[in-house]
Write a structure and sequence with these properties.
Elements lengths: L1 E5 L5 H9 L5 E5 L3 H10 L4 E2 L16 E4 L22 H11 L3 E7 L3 H11 L4 E4 L9 E6 L24 E2 L2 H7 L6 H8 L16 E3 L5 E4 L2 H7 L12 H10 L3 H8 L4
Parallel strand pairs: 1-2, 1-4, 2-3, 4-5
Antiparallel strand pairs: 5-7, 6-7, 8-10, 9-10
Helix pairs in contact: 1-9
Length: 272
């Protein structure tokens, strides 16, 4: 069985395959971020790295049984520049090109919730309607994503009722950074941070480890701390310490950019 992962990142798809117990002979990965590649090769040294997706030709590959990937979401996302296919998210067309070239038996494409007009274009190209799954069913993180796939019988995961407190460590709370006061006046703006305390689920992880929605406040909101990289891994249902071979800045970035593994393993379980 040959696997092709596009925009592989730190290989969350490979974690999911192994979690479900799906055996494969060759795992081909297209990725250009050297930190993500380092993490992948540390955990899965047999991964065959292909590099830049724009340089890959389907004719150079063996028969592919399963192709998957999450094309860049930056210009689709409400947190991005909203330039759609004209921005970085236009790399979706490279996914389509390779999909048409290798003609795999099964495929999976992941992306963010987006404007309906963009979603409809992707749906037309993929030939299947997307299924929307929120990671909060299998983790302590709110993360709604769209999944286009021809894998049969994919349903919503069962709700595991995992709470934020279930994944938090015991890191020390500290004084609220002065920059919060400088930027927002006499009182720190902690409304987004309150979500970490008052709700059962975290906000959606991002690639910006200094963003306020990644701060956790104590009960009286007098102290705060950043979520740790280990807590990020738990929120994305990634094995503990999986990303620890790179520095924390890169860990935050690639985890925020990655998939919630247990959502993907749920989808792949239908292949069995």
């Amino acid at each position: 069985m040959n696997i092709l992962s596009l925009f592989d990142g730190m290989s969350c798809g490979q974690i999911a395959l192994n979690k479900v117990g799906i055996k494969y002979d060759n795992y081909y990965a297209s990725e250009i971020d050297q930190h993500a590649i380092k993490v992948t090769q540390h955990n899965y040294p047999n991964t065959i790295q292909l590099g830049d997706i724009t340089k890959i030709k389907g004719s150079d590959l063996p028969s592919i049984d399963l192709l998957f990937g999450g094309s860049p979401c930056q210009s689709f996302s409400s947190a991005g520049n909203r330039t759609g296919f004209d921005g970085k998210s236009g790399l979706f067309w490279e996914y389509v090109r390779i999909l048409n070239e290798v003609k795999p038996k099964y495929f999976l494409l992941e992306n963010v919730k987006m404007k309906k007009e963009w979603e409809d274009i992707i749906t037309k190209e993929m030939g299947v309607e997307p299924i929307s799954i929120n990671s909060n069913l299998v983790s302590a993180q709110n993360r709604e994503r769209l999944y286009w796939t021809n894998i049969p019988n994919v349903t919503q995961p069962e709700n595991r009722n995992i709470k934020l407190n279930d994944v938090l460590g015991n890191s020390e709370f500290r004084e609220i950074p002065k920059c919060f006061y400088n930027k927002w006046g006499n009182k720190p703006r902690i409304e987004k941070g309150v979500n970490w305390v008052c709700n059962d689920k975290s906000n959606c992880l991002t690639t910006k480890n200094c963003h306020t929605n990644q701060y956790l406040f104590n009960e009286d909101k007098s102290l705060c701390r950043l979520l740790t990289a280990d807590e990020f891994e738990r929120l994305q249902t990634i094995p503990e310490g999986y990303t620890s071979v790179v520095n924390n800045t890169e860990r935050y970035k690639m985890i925020g950019n990655g998939w919630t593994v247990d959502v993907i393993s749920h989808i792949f379980s239908s292949l069995k």
